[in-house]
Write a structure and sequence with these properties.
Helix content is 49%, strand content 9%. With 89 residues, the protein is mostly helical.
């Protein structure tokens, strides 16, 4: 699981072992997106970013701001960071 800044040739990852339960993959994907959002202020001076994900769950969650209770803290922290720095994600 990871994210990267192509222009900076800088990436971050967390090694995972398989098999994983579907719920754990879901949470790890959310943590990865949240980590990317939290890293923006340190690596991109702009207020606009594009985050690509191959997970339709992540796209839906961040588009609708509706998630399972176990995911709400990740979503809330991410949205707070977006608001704090006026990001357009």
């Amino acid at each position: 699981m990871g994210f990267w800044f192509p222009n900076l040739k800088l990436g971050f990852y967390y090694p995972i072992t398989f098999p994983l339960a579907e719920e754990k993959i879901y949470l790890l994907e959310g943590i990865c997106v949240a980590s990317a959002i939290y890293s923006l202020k340190d690596h991109l001076p702009l207020s606009t970013a594009i985050i690509y994900s191959d997970s339709m769950n992540m796209v839906d969650i961040f588009n609708t701001l509706k998630a399972a209770p176990s995911f709400n803290p990740i979503l809330t922290c991410s949205i707070n960071e977006i608001i704090k720095y006026s990001y357009d994600v």
